[in-house]
Each structure stands twice: as C-alpha cells, then as structure tokens.
C-alpha cells in the first residue's frame, strides 16, 4: 500500500510530489515537461525504482582485509562431494586472490586492496608465505612463463625475471606495458599466458552499465615484451578468470553480468573465443546471449553477438576458472571446468560463494553446472569468498578465499569414498 | 615487540596501554572526540570498527594516501589495526548543530540517495555497518572530497562500489549530497 501511494506521488511533478510527501524520499522524481518541448529524460535506467525496503534488504557486502588466523578458519562449514578432502594449503595471505603456479612449485598469489603479491613456497611439504611485492595498485593479476612472473596492476604490467630463484630478494620489476586506463571500477585484472605464448589482458567496463570507451570492455593479447598488442574480444564487461581448453586450445572465460536488472537476471557467462579479433560478446547491448539491455538494447539484436556457452547464475560473481587436467580426481572431472563464484551483493538472498564444476558437451556447450565446494554462505552472509582455482601437478585443486586470506587444497582419495 | 608510533606517543602521554584497548588521544587530537572541528579531517564518531580497521590497513599499505595517516599506520600489526578500529568505534556519533538545512537541496539529495541506493550499503539512516562508513553528520567538505576522489578513481574503497556510483554523479549532485548528508538530523 505504502509503495503504491509513494509511486503515485512520485509520478506527479517533483514540486507537487514534494509538497504531498512532506519530506518522504521520492525514488524517481519526474521533471516537468512543458508543452511543445521534448520530454525530459532522467538518466536513471541504470538504477530503476526500488522500494526502500527492497534496497535495505540487499545489505552491504563488506569484509575484513586482514586475514583470518589459521585456527579461526571456518573449515568445518565447508562441504565437498564424497571422497574429497579439504586442507589449508596456506593462510595469512590477506586479500589473496588470483593463483598461478611457478615451474618449481611456488604458488604466486595476487591481491586487490592489499596491494601485495605473495609467494607460497613448498619445499618437502614445508610451506612458507613470503610477500614479494607490496604497495602495488590492485595487483590482482599474476602470470608465470619460462621462469618469469608477470604482475598486472590496474594500469601497468610488469615482469620479474627468474623469480623463483630470487623470492627473498625479488628483482626490480620491469614494466612491459602501461597503455591501460586507470579506472578503479573493474580495473583489476586477471592475466595469463596462452598456448600461443602471448599474454592475455582484460580491461573491464568502467562502471556497471554504460557504453564503454573504445579502450574498455575487451580482452587484449600481446607479446611477452608488451609489443604487438591486439584486441581479441569485445563486449566483455568484466572477466576475472580464463583458461584454454586443453582439447580445442580455445580461450574460455567467465564474464560478470550487469547489476540492477533484477534479482534473477542476467546470468554471469561462460564464453569461448573462436575467432580472435572478430567477436563481440554483447555488453552492454545484450546480456547472457538472449537478454537485450533495458537501456542499450533498443535497435540491437542479440543474434549479432556471440552467445555464451554456459550460464552461471545471476550475480554469482563467477571469477577464476580452470579446466581440470589432472588424473587424481575421478574420470568424470576430466576436461570439465572448476569455476570459483565469489558471491553476490546485488541480490536479496545471497548466492554464489562456492566452487562449481561445469561439464561440457561434445558441441562445446555447458551441459551441467554442479556445486563442488560449498558452505561459504551461512544465514545469508558470506563467511568465505572463493576467487580463483588452480590445478596442481599432482592433480589436486587449490582454491583462494580472499575473505579469509587463505588457500585451500582439495584432494581425492578413492579409498575413502562411499562404496 | 613493535610499538606503533601513535601508540608510543599516546603511551608517553597517558601511561601504559590498558587491556581495554589502545589510547586514542592521539587520534582525537585531530579528529575530535567523535566530531571533527577541523576542515578536511573526517569525524570518526559512530564509525563501525571494521571500516576503521580496513582504512588503517589501506593507510599502512599505501593503498590510501593521507598524511600523517600513512606514517602513523606503518608500524602497526594487524592486531593493532583491529584494536584501534574497536577503540575508535566507541566514539559518539557526530550530530549536526547549525541552521536548518535548505529544503530544496535536501529534497534533491534525497532523490539522489534513492536513485543511487546509498541505503543498501550505508543503511536507512546512513549510519554505516561493518565495512561501510557512517556518512550521516560527516563534515560536508570531507564528503565532497570523498565522492570526488571516488569519481576520479584517486581514492579506492574496499571494493569499487563507490567508484561505480560516484562515477555517475555530477559535481552538482555531489555538492547536494554532501550538503544534505552532513546536515542529516
């Protein structure tokens, strides 16, 4: 009832509405239109009218930057399929996010607001966490190739040659590329070296939903010295995880859908790039392959954009992903994809906060998405937030959790699986 | 044992740190005892402990720049940051005392607050929660600076929510928001 009267009041001219409402918040003031003049357009399509109660029900999603002490990690809340076991691989990595393994077994871990890059060494089962760089500008992206560590900050990519031999005294970073925008919004990067020996670098849209500048909402690739840069994919809102299909060698990436359309739409996407440089993945005109944008979809057809191969749920924040290439897990996991879902904020009943497993059909499309590591969501609050996954040479799966600043290791033991 | 600079100064002034928490006299000397009387320096009263702890973390790591906060936070351990966060959170919230706010500007600001859904994180009364700051009753010029530097990406938050939202604000909207939020009773 109250919402109806509020709506009616809000549909009158602003001045009249203000008098009637005596100070109540008018969610969407409509400016007066004078006869003979074009309608006054308010630019609020991005954030449509929502009741006060609905807005408050969303609640904030904030968490400590500091890491959770080892003995306080909520390990007993986590669930895995039968036969799988979770242990703490490393803790105390405040805000630890993207994962990348070095040739000698060092796990490199990027971060966002902590500004640090961590190295977790692993010698004869003894692990140690070192901070190898700090004070960086959202160094979310870490890539490793031929002994060299590449670190992506918001507007700069640097390399640390022969890093595993110099973890205690890392070499001075050498900037290889800095022709990047400086926007904080979706400015942090996941990076990785592809099978073509090129470095892949995404640049997110600088906001929720907008016509991006030519420099944004895309994936670029470049030689390892930062030269020969080309745009390989357009219409990508914000990908924070990708990998190459070991069978097809095609780039496969997650992309986070826009906010404020509805609780259930649009889905985050799993995409495959088949024609580098020639494909547009829809943002901001078409979401999830079949949903024209309420604002920018007019005059556009979803058929003109590359549709996703799989849908990953609305607002789940699908981030890091890797194809399972090990042999330790049961055969059904071979060739499928583990995907970390960081968890929603733009949703009343929170979702995500888990690692899912996506199976692909022979046509390359996702046939199922099943929960794998769950339990991060308790009483509609996230108690952990998976960011990235990494398959280790022995076939285990590492998972980063930036809420707790911990890395988990998931292994499989057939003997302990239920018969 | 490492002793933070601010703590060391406070210790000299007030004697040993009690188990109840660190002395925050060094903090309130500039920030005021809840309400800041100093231009450009935010009021800390009513701030959630986690917000303060996270900001101190960012100051310590150089992720947020403001003299002298970077040097004050530099020697602190994570436990120090949390202790200061908890101690600051006990300060009384600022309340606006001044002439009545201009109703037209308040109405414009309220429309912007609804449009940009400020309450979904900052709460119905803009009092903040967990990692989200109390903004109600904050100093007006500090709010203008905060929103402007979020808009230009000079300032980062825990996550980029504020960069996204402030990116959509015009300077006039920022001025109205700061005016009204600072005067919100």
Question: Would you report the number of β strands of chain B?
Answer: 0
User: How many domains is the backbone of chain A divided into?
Assistant: 2
Strand order of the largest sheet of chain A: 10-11-12-13-17
Q: For this structure, what is the CATH homologous superfamily of the largest domain in chain A? A: TolB, C-terminal domain
- Tertiary shape of chain A: globular
GO molecular function (chain B): electron transfer activity; heme binding; iron ion binding
Main location (chain B): periplasm
Binding site for heme c 2 (chain B): 118, 121-122, 162
InterPro entries (chain B): Cyt_c-like_dom (IPR009056), Cyt_c-like_dom_sf (IPR036909), Cytochrome_c4-like (IPR024167), Cytochrome_c_Oxidase_Subunit (IPR050597)
Q: What can you tell me about this protein's structure?
A:
- Chain B: Its main location: periplasm.
- Chain B: Residues 1-19 form the signal peptide.
- Chain B: Residues 10-92, 98-185 form the Cytochrome c domain.
- Chain B: It comes from Methylobacterium soli.
- The complex is a heterodimer of chains A (419) and B (185).
- Chain A is mainly beta and 419 residues long.
- Chain A is built from three helices and 29 strands.
- Chain A has two domains: 2-42, no CATH class; 70-416, Neuraminidase (6 Propeller).
- Chain A has helices at 2-11, 14-21, 52-58; strands at 84-91, 96-101, 107-111, 117-123, 126-133, 141-145, 148-152, 157-160, 174-177, 192-193, 199-203, 218-222, 230-234, 242-244, 251-255, 267-273, 279-280, 286-287, 291-292, 310-314, 318-323, 337-341, 354-360, 366-373, 377-378, 381-382, 386-391, 397-401, 406-412.
- A five-stranded mixed beta sheet of chain A has the order 10-11-12-13-17, with no helix packed on it. Chain A has a four-stranded antiparallel beta sheet with strand order 1-29-28-27, with no helix packed on it.
- The radius of gyration of chain A is 23 Å and the shape is globular.
- In chain A, 49% of the residues are buried.
- The model of chain A is unreliable at 1-48 (pLDDT under 50).
- Chain B has 185 residues and is an all-alpha fold.
- Chain B has two domains: 5-88, Cytochrome Bc1 Complex, Chain D, domain 2; 103-182, Cytochrome c-like domain (Cytochrome Bc1 Complex, Chain D, domain 2, Orthogonal Bundle).
- Chain B has helices at 5-14, 25-31, 49-60, 69-73, 78-88, 103-115, 119-122, 140-151, 161-167, 171-182.
- In chain B, helix 6 crosses helix 10, helix 8 crosses helix 9 (161-167) and helix 8 runs antiparallel to helix 10.
- Chains A and B meet through helix 3 of A and helix 3, helix 5, helix 6, helix 7 and helix 9 of B.
């Amino acid at each position: 009832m109250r919402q109806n009267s509020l709506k009616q009041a809000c549909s009158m001219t602003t001045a009249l509405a203000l008098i009637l409402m005596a100070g109540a918040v008018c969610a969407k003031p409509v400016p007066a239109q004078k006869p003979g003049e074009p309608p006054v357009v308010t630019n609020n399509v991005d954030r449509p009218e929502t009741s006060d109660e609905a807005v408050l029900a969303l609640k904030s999603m904030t968490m400590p930057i500091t890491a959770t002490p080892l003995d306080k990690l909520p390990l007993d809340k986590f669930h895995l399929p039968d036969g799988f076991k979770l242990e703490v691989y490393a803790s105390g990595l405040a805000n630890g996010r993207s994962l990348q393994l070095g040739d000698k077994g060092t796990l490199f871990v990027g971060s966002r607001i902590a500004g640090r890059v961590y190295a977790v060494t692993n010698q004869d089962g003894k692990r140690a966490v070192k901070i190898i760089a700090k004070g960086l500008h959202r160094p979310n992206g870490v890539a490793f190739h031929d002994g060299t560590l590449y670190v992506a900050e918001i507007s700069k990519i640097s390399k640390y040659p022969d890093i595993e031999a110099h973890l205690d005294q890392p070499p001075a970073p050498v900037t290889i590329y800095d022709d990047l925008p400086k926007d904080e919004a979706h400015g942090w990067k996941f990076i990785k070296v592809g099978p073509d020996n090129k470095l892949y670098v995404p640049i997110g849209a600088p906001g929720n939903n907008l016509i991006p500048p030519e420099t944004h909402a895309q994936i670029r690739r470049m030689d390892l010295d930062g030269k020969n840069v080309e745009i390989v994919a357009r219409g990508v809102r914000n990908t924070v995880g990708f990998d190459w299909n070991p069978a097809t060698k095609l780039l496969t990436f997650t992309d986070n859908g826009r906010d404020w359309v509805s609780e259930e739409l649009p889905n985050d996407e799993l995409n495959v790039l088949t024609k580098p440089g020639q494909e547009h993945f829809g943002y901001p005109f078409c979401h999830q392959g079949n949903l024209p944008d309420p604002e920018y979809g007019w005059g556009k057809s979803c058929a003109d954009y590359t549709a996703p191969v799989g849908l990953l749920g609305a607002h789940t924040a699908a981030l890091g992903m890797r194809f399972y290439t090990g042999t330790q897990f049961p055969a059904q996991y071979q060739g499928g994809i583990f995907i970390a879902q960081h968890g929603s904020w733009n949703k009343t009943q929170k979702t995500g906060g888990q690692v899912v497993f996506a199976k692909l059909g022979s046509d390359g499309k996702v046939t199922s998405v099943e929960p794998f590591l769950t339990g991060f969501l308790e009483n509609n609050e996230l108690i952990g937030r998976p960011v990235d996954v990494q398959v280790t040479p022995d076939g285990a799966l590492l998972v980063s959790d930036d809420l707790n600043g911990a890395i988990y290791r998931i292994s499989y033991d057939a003997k302990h699986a239920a018969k | 044992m490492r002793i933070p600079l601010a703590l060391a100064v406070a210790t000299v002034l007030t004697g040993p740190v009690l188990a109840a928490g660190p002395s925050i006299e060094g903090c309130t000397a500039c920030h005021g005892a809840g309400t800041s009387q100093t231009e450009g320096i935010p009021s800390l009263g009513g701030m959630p402990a986690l917000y303060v702890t996270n900001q101190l973390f960012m100051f310590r790591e150089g992720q947020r720049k403001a003299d002298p906060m970077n040097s004050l936070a530099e020697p602190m351990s994570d436990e120090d940051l949390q202790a200061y966060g908890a101690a600051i959170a006990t300060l009384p919230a600022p309340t606006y005392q001044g002439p009545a706010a201009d109703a037209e500007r308040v109405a414009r600001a309220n429309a912007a607050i609804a449009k940009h859904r400020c309450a979904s994180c900052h709460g119905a009364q803009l009092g903040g929660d967990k990692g989200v700051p109390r903004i109600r009753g904050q100093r007006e010029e500090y709010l203008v600076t905060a929103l402007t530097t979020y808009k230009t990406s000079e300032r980062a938050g825990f996550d980029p929510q504020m960069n996204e939202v402030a990116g959509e604000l015009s300077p006039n909207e920022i001025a109205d928001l700061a005016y009204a939020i600072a005067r919100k009773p």
